Structures are given as C-alpha cells and as structure tokens.
Fold:
Amino acid sequence: MKFFFPDSQDQIDPSFDFISEERSIYRVRQRDDHYAHEALRASPFDGLLVSKAIVDGLPGAAGKYTAPQRQRLYRVGVRDFFRLDERHDRRLETMGDCGAFTYVRDDVPPYTADEVVDFYEGCGFDLGISIDHVILGYDKTADTDASHPHRDGWQQRQQITLELAAEFRSRARARKARFTPVGVAQGWSPTSYAASVSALQKIGYSRVAMGGMVPLKTPDILACLEAVNVVRKSSTQLHLLGISRCENVEAFAANGVTSFDSTSAFRQSFKDDHDNYYALDRNYSALRVPQVDGNPKLKARIRAGQVSQAQAIKLERQCLQAVRRYDTGTVTIETVLELLREYDQLCDGRKDRTASYQQTLEAQLWRDCQCGLCESAGIEIALFRGSERNKRRGFHNLHVFRQRLARELEGTAA
Amino acid sequence: MTTSRRRGDLTSPPIEQELRLPALQVRQGPNRILYSFAVDGKELPRFATVSRIRRDTDAGIQGYQRPEVLSHITSIRKYLESEDPMIPNAIVIAFDKRVLFEPSGPADAYACPGTLVIPIDDQGADADKPGWVVDGQQRCAAIREARVESFPICVTAFITESDAEQRSQFILVNSTKPLPKGLIYELLPSTVGALPVALQVRRFPATLLEHLNYDSDSPLQSLIQTPTTPEGVIKDNSILRMLENSLSDGALYPYRYAGTGEGDVDSMLAMIKDFWTAVRDTFPSAWALPPRRSRLMHGVGIIGMGYLMDAIGDRYAHIRTPTVDDFRYELDEIADVCEWTSGTWRFAPDHHRKWNDLQNTPGDIRLLSNYILGEYRVQTMGRRVRRQQRA
Structure:
C-alpha cells in the first residue's frame, strides 16, 4: 500500500530560530527550505502528488508557486525540484493530477487533455491522473429515480470525466508520453462508481483513481469499493484520492486499493481544534501560544483599543518562557497551565483547554520521539504557533501516521 | 476637551523623583516653544507613554496612536543591535504642564540653554505619565526591546494639555509622502552597513542593476530608467524583478553566496551582459525603443526573456556558461514567434493577442513567459546543446 503526499509547497526553514523567532535574511524560499522527506529521518511517504492547479493556479485561485519557481519546476522537472533523488533509501514516486476540487464549481474542467499531458510530460511525472470533474453528492436513489434533482448534473459530470479520460489516454499514447496514465472514476453510488471503473477499463486503463470520496462515510466508501470489485479486472489497481483512514486500510487493500493520498495528518497539526499532535495510540492538543502580531482577532481588538498590546505581549512572552522552563524542570505544570489559560482568555477565551494541555505537557511526546524533528525542536514542536512550529509538528504527524499505517498493514500480513 | 489624564495638581506635595536634563528652549513663534534634549531611550518609558486610539463609553474618540507594528519594530531593533547604529531624527513628545524649564544662560533671538525638569513616578500608571509620544513610538519600542545597554536619543518636546493639538501634530508628522522606490534603489548600492531587511536583500540586485546601466560594456548601458537616468526606456523595477527571479530560481543562483546575500558579481554580470547582447543582436529593431513601441523593453518582455536566460543557462550548465554566440544560437529558436513591435502573438490556435495588447500584469507576464519557454522547449527538444565553435 503506497502513501502519496499531496504537495502544497509546505516546507520548513532550517535557519529559523525558536528563541529569537528570526530566520536568515538571505534564505531563498524552497531552495534553502526542507520538505518532509528531507527533514524527517525517514521519508514518511512513498511518493508526492503534485497538482496542476497548485502549480499553475486558475483564474480566481492563485497557485502556490511563484512564477520563478513554476518556471524552474518546468525546466528541471519534478524530481530535481523536490530533490527526490537525494534520498537514497528508496525511490519516491511522483504522481500528477489536476486538482479537481479547485474547479469543482465550474461547469466544465478548465484544462484540455493536451495541456495536462504537457504538464505531466514537462515535469517528468511517473504517473498522471486524467482530468476529472468531481461529483459532490452521494445518493444511490439517483441510480433509479429519474426525477432525482441532481441526476442529470451528476450523470453529465461522470460523462465529462469519462470522455476526458478517453481523450487524455489517446493523446498521451499519440505523443508517446512516458508517464503511466491513471483514469478517474467519479460516481454518486456503488453502482455508478462500478460503471465508471468498468468504462475506464474498456478505454484501456489498468490504474484507476477513485475520486470525490473525501466527504463519504467509511461504510459508503467500502460499499463502492465492493461494487467496483465485481467489475474490476484482477490487474486493475485502485488509488483512493484524498482518503487516509488508517484503520480501514486492510479492507481497502482487499478491494484492490494499492495506493492513496491524504494531507490530513499534516494539516491537522494546524487546522484541527484539538487532535493536532499525534502519538502512536492517540492524538494530543498542541499548546496555543499565538503571536500577538499573527492572530487576526487579537490584532483587531488591539487596534480598536479594547485589549492592551503591552499586556498581550507580556503574557505571550511569559507563556513561552514558562513552557520552556517546564521542559527543563524549573517551573511547575500548574504555573504553565495558569499562564496558558490567562493568555487564551485574552485571545479567544471561548473554552478552557487546561485539561487537554495538562495531558500534552505530561505526555512529553517530544522527548522520546524519533521522527528527526522532535529532537531538534524539543517542546517548541508542541506549540500551536506560526508556520515554522506548526509545519514541523505536521511533519511529525506524518511520521506517526506512517507508523500507524505500518502497524495496520502488519496486521493484514499476519 | 477630551483628556483622559489626571492633571498635575500644583497644590499637592512635591513629587519625590525628577529627571533633570540639559535642554535647549527654542522659540519658533510668539506662542510656539519647543525643547530639544537627549535622553537614554531606555529611560523614555519612565516618563512618556503612547496614547492609543479607542472609543470611550460615550463613543468619543480617545488618543491617536495605532498599536505597535511588531515587524517594523523588529526591523529597527535589528538595526539597533547591529554595529554602530545611529538614529538622527528626534522623537517628538508632548508634555503636560508639570514639566518645567529652568533657564541657565542668556537667550539669543530664539534659543536659550537650561534644564528641563521632568517629574517621575515609577509606581504611577501609564496614563499619569507627564509625556505622550507623538512621533516615534516604533523607535521607542525598538530601543526598549533592543539587546543593548542604552541608546541615547534626541527628543523634541512641546508642552500642551490638549489632546487635539497632539493629534494634529501626530497627523502632520505622519502624513508625509514616502520616498519614491526608484530613488531608494538607486541609492542602495552606495550604502554601507545595516539596513532594514527588505532593503538589505535588495542591495545586491540593485548593485547588479547599477553595473548594467553604467558599465561601458553593458548592452543595457543608459537604457534603464532611474531618477538619474530619466532617458532610460526600461523600468528599473522590471530589471530588478528579472534579476531577483534569476537569483532565487534561475541561472544566477549558482553564483550566489548563500550566507551573505551577495555573489560572484563578475560571473553574474558576464552572463547577463552576454545574454542581453545576444537579445539586442537578435531583435535589433525592437531594441532601445520605449515600451509603448516595443514589448521587448516592457516589463512583460524583460521578465519573460529573463526566464529564457535561465532556461538557456540551465541547458548549458553541465558544459559551460553560455557565451554570446551560444545565446544568439538559442535565441534564433524563438525569434520567429516573437512579435515585439508589430503583428500578433499566437499563443494558441484560438488565442491571439495583438503585439501591444500585452500589459505589465502577472497574468500577461505569465502568458508570454509560458509561450516563449514552451516554444523554446519544443524547438530544442531532443537537440543537444551547441558545440563550442571557437576555442
């Protein structure tokens, strides 16, 4: 089972200093920074998924790449750009896709088959996913009920996706593209997904990505996979787009899934309210010490004269100092918790996180973790604060996710 | 009058502590008296504070200062911690009438030496301090935060009880027009020592620009428009962006010294000059015209061609630094599709744009860059780089 990580230009700056919160002023973004596969002791993923929408942007949705970075990616290719070959323990694969969620609201996808082949070929991907159009909705009554309000729209999107898949494959063949084309199945029910996979196999695809399943409940995903399994040729490999759900990996594998991609372990580190710091058996809450200058709500209240900036800065500093002293054993846990609560009251104050913070502080995950970042960042990695700490924790979460996955897969093998 | 401050009561017992500072009283007009003095910036918070803008319970306006801008303070603080910093411009403080001036010498027409007596109450609340910072709150904060023992600073003060007067002075000192960017860029190469970070990182590209504009062997000599070269046709900013793009992600990157933000100037200049010489030779009729007559001299052309320099440099990188001949040879590949001064760009079968319909916008720069580089890739696909013709 291969795990692909969708790139969104997430790196850490090794020159960042936690105490002064400063970095080298001459640092060149991306080039001097480290990706997860460079920062962690072992690469947490088997490959990278890079989406055209993230690289190129779309009208109304800026890409994540600067123009010079984009040009360099096209010149040197995806392997060099991401420095994938500098890891020698194993070969990391690369998969390209279109980023269908960025244009989900449009009537038709914004790319032509040729443009997408250009992108995959120009960047030198191993695998290239055909252009798809996401169906937002899951309702099996649409299979039979001709008056279902979304039936026509959903069928149309499925049809567009299949037509583009056919065109994409024939263009890639005609141009002798070196990447392996991957078709996308879109559907709204087990039956419709099965129909998609069947059609893609007829077109000639032996690798199929299952799209639009991110919002689905696990039993629905499994129902779809089981329906697909009836029509799936034994040689057809499935990829789950945007799905992790470690605990189901065994069932996924049994239905022909050989790879998946997900950002959730990484993104949880700064998106999730509490489950943002992973340990092997459970998640903990990172300690929120927002930057006075970085928290929009607090900033607005300071600007309006409702909160004293000096008071906020003082509390922020006291929190940082207390957390560090707790780590060296010179301050009690009660003092840290009290300060964190006081600062939280000033910033947000909607809920008291003291109990979960206490568990985080007592667990001291960073002390024994072997990920490669916890050792160098120490307790700083447990702070919910700024992208340098949050992304380090995100990388750590990827490392733990990888271990969880390995554990589940060992279960399968045994 | 809206004032949130308690007035000094002249009948109350004398204040225990005071700061006595040598000062100059300056009479600017019949009703205008200023005081000029120096004080350790670390002492400032003892007698002066900042009046933050807010609304009181009756929605009346109070104070006038915005919050501290932490990034700006960091930038000043780093400067203060650098070697040999200097802040020549004075902090402006408004004192209330508890502050007194004792003349010590004869006054000439407008100036009189003496001592300024400032009451100090270290236990007192901020709002009870005798001084308000009218201008220089970021500098004051930076001195307060800086890891330096002390930092004497010049202060200009006036005495008033009126918030309204402080507010108008605050607006007056803060509504000046910032320096034009072009002037700053032109001055950058001939500066020494620490500068704010954003300028510090531009100093090196600005130095390259200066060479390109003034070296006698540069094809761009006198073509870059700066405050002292107004006849130039290429905007300074276009050249800076082209250079910065290449320094971070292109052909100049290998010549950069990671630790200092500088680099091997000679090698860099050689490559840039050779490239633009080849561009001039390839497109003689589009060269040196104002941007409205030639898109090559326009931001869109300069930046797009900059990417092409990077692409050619990359292709040759494993063999040699491309020479003028190499660049000419490679530029020939795309010369036919360029419509710098007339005609129509054929970006795609159904996407044509008149030559002068390209603007200096991110979208158009990208369109043109992708087109030129796409054509270059197609033309050079499978072809090896040109052999060296001359030894």
Q: What stands out?
A: The mean pLDDT of chain B is 90.
